[in-house]
Amino acid sequence: MGFIKLVIFGFVGLTVIYFSVSLYSRSVRKERLENTFDEENPDGGEPGAREAFVADGIAAYDSSIRPKLIGLVYVVPTIVIGTIIYVINAN
What domain range includes position 67? Predict the structure, then answer.
């Protein structure tokens, strides 16, 4: 019964961490895109150009490997905890 609770609460915790890291990474990328546009267009550029630039950059970010690597939030702790449980029980 304890193992089932560990698995359930572990994945709930990992899900919270995954969404937090995902939202943070996306917001940092969006801010970097906005700053890049502002540096390249000090006069503000055309109306709607900034939003289009940011939208294109976020679309490129979504298809990159970085959001997929955030999924390692699930894999790495599961492997570490599984290894620890195995080593402890092997003795």
Answer: 2-90
- CA–chain centroid gap for 79, Å, is 19
DSSP label at 44? -
Inter-CA distances, 8 with 5, 16, 24, 52, Å: 5, 13, 24, 41
45-62 residue pLDDT tens: 788 899 999 999 999 999
CA dist list (Å): 56 to 6, 9, 11, 15, 33 = 41, 37, 33, 27, 10
What pLDDT score was predicted for residue 84?
A: 93
Count of the separate structural domains present in the chain:
1
CB 21 within 8 Å of CB 73: yes
Query: What pTM value is reported for the model?
Result: 0.81
